[in-house]
Amino acid sequence: MQRQVMIVVPVYNDWPSYTKLVEALDAVAGELPDWRIDLLAVDDGSSDDFRKSALAGTKPAHLASSRVVELVCNLGHQRAIAVGMVTALERFEQDALIVMDADGEEDPAYVKEMLAAHVDDPERVITAERGQRSEGLVFRSFYQIYKGLFRALTGQSISFGNFGLLPRTQAKRLIHRPETWSNLAASIIRSRVPTKSVWTKRAVRYQGQSKMNFMSLILHGLGAMSVYSDVLFVRLLLSSVGLALLALCGIIAVVGIRIGTELAIPGWASTMVAALAIMLVQSIAVSFGGIFIVLQSRSTPSIIPSAVAPQYLATVHELHRR
């Protein structure tokens, strides 16, 4: 009996690249007779009509089917993935989902390794950890800074992106977690689902330049950190309380030096007390602000992908079925 996997690919104005991805995945499917492989592209509000691209005329020989989910508007990469996952899980049958990009940088050849790892351990999420990046030095440097900040602010390490395999049971859990609406990789870490890594290398883009620039990296990093917003605010709260206590101790020390010793320089004590008092008041204000933000986030309804995804779904186009 064939196992079934559906590959979810978000696409925004990159249909020529997706067409080449379909060809590459069709070749991979020809090497995996034990698997039924379906494709589900998520049209993230593209201004380029996929029906006018070469994709509309492709007839893969080995892929079981290919479909395009058309969204009503542009949601962004992560939310397009979330809608695609919900659509795949609620409308079609499969044993697992694979999420990957259309640009070719995520080599379709690694799909075979992911499926083999899934067969060995069917309940684990298979993540693609990039052992070697080929971007420029500046980008790699800031990427390392992002990973360091993520670990420092959240207490967790993040070493993989969207490319990965999700067993159906784990994918069902993830589409009911609000964090998946912001960042899939961070949601996997936050949900504590069991994972297993496959080491990959970045492949060459099918065409054009990478859309992940410095600004995109900042937005991506903020999206990942937003998954831990409550943790960040609690850490901010504790830091503010610590700073307030430090300022209070400083004020006491300055007053003690001024009153009990002859070491104080004229005017020094009042200046230091004023500066420390400002620090104390600001720390207290930040602490109370952090408390209110945490309490408000706890009482505000979360966005659950499985609940909101249908609102953004325009239609599903079936391009071919074998």
What does this 3D model show about the protein?
- The chain is an alpha/beta fold.
- The chain has two domains: 3-228 and 305-321, Spore Coat Polysaccharide Biosynthesis Protein SpsA, Chain A (Alpha-Beta Complex); 230-299.
- The protein is built from ten helices and eight strands.
- It has helices at 15-30, 77-91, 110-120, 137-154, 168-174, 184-191, 214-226, 229-260, 268-299, 305-308, and strands spanning 3-11, 35-43, 65-71, 96-99, 125-132, 160-167, 195-201, 313-321.
- It has an eight-stranded mixed β-sheet, with helices on both faces.
- Helix 1 links the parallel strand 1 (3-11) and strand 2.
- Helix 4 (137-154) runs parallel beside helix 7.
- 34% of the residues are buried.
Give a brief rundown of this model.
This protein is of the alpha/beta class and 322 residues long. The chain is 48% helix and 19% strand. The chain has two domains: 3-228 and 305-321, Alpha-Beta Complex (Spore Coat Polysaccharide Biosynthesis Protein SpsA, Chain A), CATH 3.90.550; 230-299.
Average pLDDT confidence is: 85
Helix content: 40-55%
Largest sheet, order of strands side by side? 7-5-6-4-1-2-3-8
* Helix and strand composition category: alpha/beta
User: Tally of extended strands?
Assistant: 8
Biggest sheet statistics: 8 strands, mixed
Oligomer: single chain
Query: Beta fraction of the residues?
Result: 15-25%
